[in-house]
Specification:
- By secondary structure, this protein is an alpha/beta fold.
- 43% of the residues lie in helices and 16% in strands.
- It has one domain (8-285): TIM Barrel (Alpha-Beta Barrel).
- It has helices at 13-17, 26-39, 61-66, 84-91, 107-114, 118-134, 157-169, 186-199, 213-225, 254-263, 272-285; strands at 8-11, 43-49, 76-81, 98-104, 138-144, 174-179, 204-209, 230-233.
- An 8-stranded parallel beta barrel has the order 1-2-3-4-5-6-7-8, surrounded by 7 helices.
- Helix 3 links the parallel strand 2 (43-49) and strand 3 (76-81).
- Helix 2 (26-39) runs antiparallel to helix 11 and helix 9 (213-225) packs across helix 10 (254-263).
- The model is unreliable at 243-247 (pLDDT under 50).
Length: 286
């Protein structure tokens, strides 16, 4: 089958780096991010403004951002925040285009990830959305545990739809369905994206899938075939959420997205020379 639509890729070095125990020197991060910027990804999830006690690897985000080569950049920059304080810090940077807030359908994980429950987190989103609106930024919500959770909390497609409806009512236009611990399968990927992309055609739904590498291609295909054209990925499939289960399951490899593009004869708009350079340099990062 040949596809006509293109794919939009958010490269996620922040997600890839945040769980690494040894601190990656800022200069290495800067060089790596500058190579990724030259690839021309649609967005780059480059860093976060959260407590350094929670995510020590990202304590240098502001310094790194100040030293990126952003002349003629094609990529939008996204920073993760977890509360109003982090959002206030993030919106002060003109070069940041998107703020990303993790909101979970799992009460347990929301407490674990942001130290607040779902009701309080909705109030946070409202305040952060106002900050973004007044600062000409976009707020992207990561609907984490969107495909199920390991904590025994309720999960059902109708529950996901309930929270999507709530977020859309609040003016959120970008929602990343996030498989935080790799529990998605072809069935629930097809069900969720087919329903949501049809019911909310004006909302940008993003597939943020954590996966074993041998099942990543099939998951990409399932999401794409059911209306999703926006994907989060990380070079070499690195990453995973250190605040979820103890074992980390990596992101969809960017290489697998490129394979999907090539096999389905879609236009690859990204600079593959710089991608190869970033891939080679990643050995120094990870």
């Amino acid at each position: 089958m040949q596809y006509d639509s293109q794919i939009y890729i958010t490269e996620c070095p922040r997600d890839a780096m945040q769980g690494i125990t040894d601190f990656i020197p800022s200069e290495i991060k800067i060089k790596y991010l500058n190579l990724l910027l030259k690839v021309g990804f649609d967005k780059i999830d480059f860093g976060s403004f959260v407590s350094p006690k929670a995510i020590p690897q990202m304590k240098d985000t502001a310094y790194v951002l100040d030293h990126l080569d952003l002349d003629n950049k094609r990529s939008k920059l996204l920073a993760i925040i977890a509360n109003e304080r982090g959002a206030t810090d993030a919106v002060s940077f003109e070069s940041i285009d998107f703020l990303g807030f993790p909101f979970s359908v799992s009460e347990t994980f929301q407490q674990r990830n942001t130290n607040t429950g779902l009701d309080e987190s909705i109030l946070r989103i409202e305040k952060i959305q106002n900050l973004c609106f007044n600062s000409n930024k976009e707020l992207q919500i990561y609907l984490s545990m969107g495909f199920g959770n390991p904590y025994g909390d309720p999960w059902h497609p109708d529950l996901v739809l309930k929270w999507v409806n709530k977020l859309v009512e609040m003016g959120i236009k970008y929602i990343a369905l996030s498989d935080t611990v790799g529990v998605s399968d072809i069935g629930n990927i097809c069900d969720l994206f087919s329903t949501l992309t049809k019911e909310k055609p004006d909302i940008v739904f993003i597939a943020h899938l954590h996966s074993q590498k041998n099942s990543a291609y099939d998951k990409i295909k399932a999401a794409y075939d059911n209306g999703c054209i926006h994907f989060d990925s990380a070079l070499n499939g690195m990453g995973g959420c250190p605040l979820a289960k103890d074992e980390l399951i990596g992101n969809i490899p960017t290489e697998t997205l490129f394979d999907f593009i090539e096999k389905n004869k879609m236009a690859n708009k990204y600079n593959l020379d710089f991608f190869d350079k970033a891939k080679s340099y990643s050995n120094r990062v990870f």
